[in-house]
Amino acid sequence: MLPVEQQRLRIGTRISPTARVHALQVRDLLAKALPEVSMEIIPVETAAERRVGGFASLHGRTAAKRELDRRLLSGQIDLAVHWMKEVPSDSTVPEGITFGAYIRREDIHDVVVFRAGSPYRSLAELPEGAAVGVPSVHRCGQLLRHRPDLHVLTTHGDADSQIDTLDAQDEYEAVVVARSEIARPHPPDDRAVQTLDLEVMCPPVGAAAIGVACRIDDVPLADLLYTIDDPVTRSHITAERTLQHGLKAHYDSPIAGHCRSLPDGKLSLRGMVFTRDGKHMIEVCEQDAPNRPTRLGTRVAAALLSRGVGALIGN
């Protein structure tokens, strides 16, 4: 139960449509536990996000997290909602802040969204030289490894903006985006959308995971967040972010990492590093006990580094 003076929660989030959807998810989960508490979504915009394509940069992501941290510590917001794949693993959580909850992970698959009216229904059907838009280095390298004959272009903006651009311009046949980042419908209803197998497109570190930060000294709120925390997602994200940190990599690095739980309860972490053109790739997969995600992430990072991935990452 929150104290009387805290019967209104201010939930900070980035200003994008996808970020707002995430904040609403958190609000709805908290509202089930505290229906009597008023909750307000506080959109936070940075200068980097106001620039066209600004948030596509590492600087933009770091600036957004820093601004949410600042407002949280100053008491302007009570909670900060983060899309974990966009939280740099090399930036420490400021003193006084903790991730009180990780929401149960969504669908981590990437999808190929084809242009409205396209005669193609899958990557396999695309002709040699067909143009496909991708928003990140990790997708570019993996897509070209699977289809080196494609013409891969860099796209900008959130998933919905990329799909809008796909239809408005005759620049490419399809875009590859995360299913969990599509925040609204995109007609027509019969538009071709292909789900990519994880063996074809390993997701980035922190994919489809929402983290909720609060002040450490706000004990009643931290206790409340504990009730919506998903421990499995927390273990998976911890392993993946430890891997990323061990490689001294970030979101714009040519790496991918995915942790999952095996039927016997063990954690399995797959880490990949590759060149942008997909011609070179190094992959490591290790397992460990379910309560050892940090050790697992450290082991996979060390195994990759021992095979010379530092040169591919640029360290």
UniProtKB/TrEMBL annotation:
One of its GO terms (molecular function) is hydroxymethylbilane synthase activity. It catalyses: 4 porphobilinogen + H2O = hydroxymethylbilane + 4 NH4(+). The keyword Transferase applies. InterPro entries: HemC, Porphobilin_deaminase_N, Porphobilinogen_deaminase_C, Porphobilinogen_deaminase_C_sf. It is an enzyme of class 2 (transferase). Keywords: Porphyrin biosynthesis, Transferase. It comes from the Bacteria. GO terms for biological process: heme biosynthetic process. Its EC number is 2.5.1.61. One of its GO terms (cellular component) is cytoplasm. It holds the Pfam family Porphobil_deam. Tetrapolymerization of the monopyrrole PBG into the hydroxymethylbilane pre-uroporphyrinogen in several discrete steps. Belongs to the HMBS family. NCBIfam families: hemC. This is Hydroxymethylbilane synthase. It comes from Thermobifida halotolerans.
